[in-house]
Specification:
Largest sheet of chain B: 2 strands, antiparallel
Oligomer: heterodimer
Radius of gyration of chain A: 22 Å
Subcellular location (chain A): Cell membrane
Protein name (chain A): ABC transporter permease
Largest interface: A-B, 44 and 48 residues
InterPro entries (chain A): ABC_transp_permease
Main location (chain A): membrane
Number of helices of chain B: 14
Distance between the termini of chain B: 55 Å
Number of domains of chain A: 1
CATH architecture of chain A: Orthogonal Bundle
Distance between the termini of chain A: 22 Å
Strand content of chain A: under 5%
CATH architecture of chain B: Orthogonal Bundle
Shape of chain B: globular
Strand content of chain B: under 5%
Number of helices of chain A: 15
Shape of chain A: globular
Number of domains of chain B: 1
Keywords (chain A): Cell membrane, Membrane, Transmembrane, Transmembrane helix
Helix content of chain B: 55-70%
Chain lengths: 363, 307
């Protein structure tokens, strides 16, 4: 620690004081992650399981080989987009947790449309499906934003209620009006026409969703940090009254940012159907929306930081099967880990500005 | 017999269903009322409900006593509430976000420990046959009221009285309305809020035990599907009044029972859409009762959700 302190002071003396303050924003969440993992390790010990084995299997299953990396990156794609659905509204001070609903409906829209697009050339058909999925997701989460702005309805509760409604709606459509009679065991929409399936990225066995997810993270970072819109959103997130006094269109910002977040989550639904499942069914409600909440909080709502955090969480989820088989742990183990890390990261909010090492001393 | 009732079977099944379905919602909303009256919101009661359901079921399977299950469910709920309360007492920690995390952790732990208990059968909680006067089996079935429902009703009345007329009730309301006023009176707001959250968690744990030990009466991972969260939303609709919580829970129980009631008379169209009815009703109620311009009547002053 003393060595770190020395490096910090030297950096400060060289005129890079802001670098140290920024390093706090990285160090605190990383510490919280380590503390959370340690608490989870204790939990494993009470269960008579070895935390060392756990880490070894997570490494092997998530990051240890080319195959596990493919698996991890494929899972990272929907997680990146789900996290954006939390992080974008968060810049306005809103806690939206209903991304799962947007993913599910985006997938249903893709499946419903894609089954009837055999006539269309691939670029046109895929564009139509993307537009439909993003529109549905955007409207769904945008509703939570609009309710918040016009009626003062708490967006956390309303977005989760909308998400439950979306899942019920998907079950209704997939079991009823949109059901493919050929899908016996697992009710699904009719499979997408073969030309409407999106293939893997060149040279990898990972689908295009990953590239689009990373691109969306970068574009949203530019939107928030480098444009007037993002600046206005950050002001409104800090103080709504101040933003209104400045004449900022808070309503448009609230609805716009929630709808954009929902549209990106809807895009995740599109990729799940067009690359992984081939038709819309109950597998769409795989919990990506909930993991996305944790990712956004771990990344401190910074859309660039979401990229590494999403890959980390995707790797942990990708290793779930291996951990279950080799250690005899139930699948809910990963949810326990996520819950503990989530609490730890939220508690770390209290640590900001309190760790002496990050305080500038020079001036 | 079935066909004699005709369409009357629907309202009868809805009333019976309302009584059956409303009990867990009633307990969770009573617990949340207590917590919110102290100035904190615990969104994690969904997780507490699910964990309470698992703990109660497991206890009943292992011990053979459903009432011991209810007790363990309540104790587990209190522990979850205590964790939420203690963490939220740390400065700068957001109670809504902690609630989301507790929701995730509670359901995760419940699924983790509940895996071995999906198969075994636990003894049910007893019901009181209030329909003895009727010959119709449908009426008897509808009025088969569980003991916990009666306890919930008594708890609602007792809580309303305690909040209005007792010293602890007054202390709770002061803490909920103004931290500064509470401090000036020499009270310790953080501790009182933590206690209120713990007791609220115990209520949710009891609600969970009803789910697994009476209706639907088994333990599985889809047992709650958002009832805990709806109950939290209902507290706003009920204006933080325990008596209103009772009526609101009945209303929601009725909405939840509509789908199965229609199915019992042969309406199977859009069955899954009826699953969505309680969510849409909750949302409608929230839209109707929220407002951007005026403060919500009856809302505790320190509540972050209404600020």
């Amino acid at each position: 620690m003393a060595a770190v302190e020395q490096i910090f002071r030297a950096t400060e003396a060289a005129g890079f004081g802001s670098l140290i303050r920024r390093s706090e924003a990285v160090a605190v969440p990383v510490l919280a992650l380590i503390v959370g993992a340690a608490v989870f390790g204790l939990f494993l010990l009470t269960q008579g399981k070895s935390p060392v084995d756990f880490i070894a299997y997570v490494w092997q299953g998530g990051f240890g080989s080319a195959f596990s990396w493919q698996n991890t990156l494929s899972r990272a794609a929907p997680l990146l987009m789900a996290a954006m659905c939390v992080a974008l509204p968060a810049r306005l001070g809103l806690v939206v947790i209903g991304g799962e609903g947007a993913i599910v409906l985006g997938g249903v829209a893709t499946g419903a449309l894609g089954a009837h697009l055999a006539w269309a050339p691939a670029p046109l058909g895929i564009t139509l499906m993307v537009i439909a999925a993003m529109a549905v997701g955007g409207i769904w989460i945008g509703m939570a934003g609009a309710l918040r702005h016009y009626r003062g309805v708490n967006e956390t509760i309303s977005s989760l209620l909308l998400s439950y409604t979306a899942i019920a709606l998907m079950n209704h459509l997939v079991e009823g009006p949109l059901r493919d009679p050929a899908s016996l065991n697992k009710p699904s929409t009719a499979p997408l026409a073969e030309t409407m399936r999106v293939g893997p990225l060149p040279g990898m066995d990972v689908h295009w969703g990953l590239a689009l997810g990373v691109l969306a993270c970068i574009l949203c970072w530019i939107l928030i940090e480098r444009t007037a819109w993002g600046f206005a959103a950050r002001i409104a997130g800090g103080n709504v009254r101040a933003a209104q006094v400045q004449g900022l269109a808070v309503g448009k910002l609230v609805i716009g940012f929630t709808a954009l977040g929902g549209a990106i989550a809807g895009l995740a639904g599109f990729f799940e159907v067009s690359t992984v499942h081939g038709s819309a069914n109950a597998s769409l409600a795989a919990g990506y929306g909930y993991t996305g909440i944790l990712i956004a909080f771990l990344a401190r709502q910074n859309t660039l930081a979401i990229i590494p955090v999403a890959i980390l969480l995707a790797g942990i989820e990708a290793s779930s099967g291996l951990v279950q088989r080799r250690m005899g742990l139930p699948d809910a183990t990963m949810q326990v880990l996520q819950g503990i890390v989530f609490i730890s990261i939220l508690m770390s909010d209290a640590a900001y500005g309190r760790l002496a090492i990050f305080k500038p001393k020079g001036n | 017999m079935e066909s004699d009732l005709g369409l009357w079977a629907i309202p009868l099944a809805v009333i019976g269903g309302a009584i059956r379905v409303s009990t867990p919602i009633l307990f969770v909303s009573l617990g949340e009322t207590l917590t919110e009256r102290s100035g904190r919101i615990n969104l994690g009661l969904e997780g507490t409900l699910v964990f309470g359901a698992m703990a109660a079921y497991a206890t009943a399977v292992l011990s053979g006593s459903p009432w011991l299950g209810v007790l363990v469910g309540a104790l587990c709920g209190a522990v979850f509430g205590l964790i939420h309360g203690v963490i939220c007492s740390i400065p700068k920690v957001n109670d809504i976000a902690i609630g989301i995390a507790m929701m995730l952790l509670g359901t995760g732990l419940a699924f983790y420990f509940g895996k071995p208990f999906i198969q075994p059968v636990a003894p049910d909680l007893p019901a009181i046959p209030l329909g003895w006067w009727s010959d119709l089996p449908q009426v008897q079935a509808a009025l088969n009221v569980n003991v916990l429902f009666v306890i919930g009703l008594i708890a609602a009345l007792a809580l309303a009285w305690a909040l209005r007329a007792t010293r602890p009730g007054l202390i709770l309301r002061v803490v909920g309305d103004s931290t500064d006023a509470a401090r000036a009176m020499g009270l310790r707001p953080a501790m009182i809020r933590t206690m209120a959250t713990a007791i609220g968690g115990a209520f949710a744990g009891i609600g969970g035990s009803y789910l697994s030990l009476y209706y639907p009466g088994s333990w599985n991972e889809g047992i709650s599907s958002g009832q805990g969260l709806m109950a939290v939303a209902l507290v706003i609709f009920a204006r933080w009044s325990p008596i209103n919580c009772f009526w609101a829970a009945l209303l929601f129980g009725g909405a939840g029972a509509l789908g199965p009631a229609l199915q019992s008379v042969g309406v199977t169209q859009g069955y899954y859409l009826f699953y969505a009815a309680p969510y849409i009703l909750t949302l409608g109620v929230l839209i109707a009762t929220s407002s951007t311009s005026r403060a919500l009547t009856g809302a505790p002053g320190e509540l972050s959700i209404t600020k």
